[in-house]
C-alpha cells in the first residue's frame, strides 16, 4: 500500500480536531495539568497533546512524552565550548547540528513530532510506530542533569543518540514501564526483548517525505 496514503488514512481517522481533554479522558487531563507557557515542562506536554489530538485515531490514550535532542552529550558539548579561541565555533557547530523532537508514549505506540529549536514548541507530526517495534534502546538515566537513550528512526540503519533533561525523568519512567527491555543492561537481568509487529500503527506507514 502507498505510504503516503497510509499516513493520510491515519490522520483522517481523527477527522475533526479535538481538545486535548477530549482525547483520552483522565490520561489527557493528567498530561495537560499545569501551566501554559511552552518553555515549561507542563506547557510543552500540553501543546504536544493538543497537536496529537488532531491526528490520533479514536481510542488512542496518551501516557507520557519527552523532549529530546540529538548529538553528543550536552555535558561534553559544554566542555568543548570552553576551549580557548575555538570553543565558540565548536559550540555553534554542535548547536546547528542538533535536531529536536518530542517522543510521545501512547497505549499502543511511540509518536514523534519535530520540536522548534528556540522555543521547544512541538511542530509537525513525523511518524508513529508500535511500541513493540522497539525503536528505543539503551535508556540510561544520568545522575545529574542529562540522560540519554537511542532511537532507531525509520529508514536508518543505526540508532541515533537522544539526550533528555532530568525534568523528564518522571515521564521516562512510563517509557521504561512500557518497554523494560529498552533499559541499558536489561538483558543482564533476564528481560525478554519485545516482539515486533504489534500495535496500532505500522512502521511502513511513514511516507518518505516525513522521514529524517
Characterization of this structure:
With 212 residues, the protein is of the alpha+beta class. 30% of the residues lie in helices and 23% in strands. It contains seven helices and seven strands. It has helices at 3-12, 20-24, 26-32, 41-52, 74-81, 87-97, 169-178, and strands spanning 62-70, 100-106, 109-115, 122-130, 136-140, 146-151, 160-165. Helix 5 packs antiparallel against helix 6. The longest helix is centred in the N-terminal third of the chain and has 12 residues, at 41-52. The protein is globular. 32% of the residues are buried. This is YokE-like PH domain-containing protein.
| Measured distance between first and last alpha carbons | 21 Å
**In total, how many beta strands?**
7
- SSE arrangement, N to C: HHHHEHHEEEEEEH
Average pLDDT, all residues:
75
Strand neighbour order, sheet with most strands: 4-3-2-1-7-6-5
Number of domains: 1
* Shape label: globular
Helix fraction bin: 25-40%
Instruction: Specify the structural class.
Output: alpha+beta
Binned strand content: 15-25%
Number of helices: 7
Describe the oligomeric state of these chains in a short phrase. single chain
- Give the biggest sheet: 7 strands, antiparallel
Task: Determine Rg (CA atoms, Å).
Answer: 17 Å
Which parts are unreliable, with pLDDT below 50 for 5 consecutive residues or more?
1-38, 195-210
Protein name: YokE-like PH domain-containing protein
Amino acid at each position: 500500500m502507498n505510504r503516503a496514503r497510509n499516513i493520510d488514512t491515519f490522520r483522517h481517522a481523527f477527522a475533526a480536531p479535538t481538545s486535548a481533554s477530549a482525547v483520552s479522558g483522565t490520561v489527557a487531563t493528567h498530561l495537560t495539568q499545569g501551566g501554559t507557557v511552552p518553555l515549561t515542562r507542563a506547557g510543552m506536554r500540553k501543546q504536544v497533546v493538543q497537536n496529537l489530538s488532531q491526528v490520533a485515531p479514536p481510542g488512542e490514550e496518551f501516557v507520557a512524552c519527552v523532549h529530546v535532542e540529538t548529538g553528543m552529550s550536552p555535558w561534553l558539548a559544554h566542555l568543548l565550548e570552553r576551549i580557548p579561541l575555538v570553543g565558540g565555533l565548536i559550540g555553534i557547530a554542535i548547536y546547528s547540528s542538533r535536531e529536536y523532537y518530542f517522543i510521545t508514549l501512547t497505549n499502543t505506540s511511540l509518536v514523534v513530532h519535530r520540536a522548534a529549536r528556540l522555543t521547544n514548541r512541538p511542530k509537525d507530526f513525523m511518524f508513529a510506530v508500535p511500541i513493540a517495534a522497539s525503536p528505543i534502546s539503551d535508556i540510561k538515566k544520568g545522575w545529574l542533569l542529562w540522560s540519554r537513550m537511542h532511537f532507531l528512526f525509520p529508514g536508518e540503519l543505526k540508532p541515533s543518540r537522544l539526550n533528555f533533561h532530568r525534568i523528564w525523568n518522571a515521564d521516562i519512567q512510563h517509557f521504561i514501564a512500557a518497554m523494560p527491555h529498552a533499559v541499558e543492561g536489561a538483558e543482564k537481568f533476564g528481560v525478554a526483548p519485545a516482539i515486533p509487529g504489534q500495535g496500532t500503527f505500522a512502521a511502513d506507514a511513514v511516507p518518505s517525505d516525513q522521514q529524517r
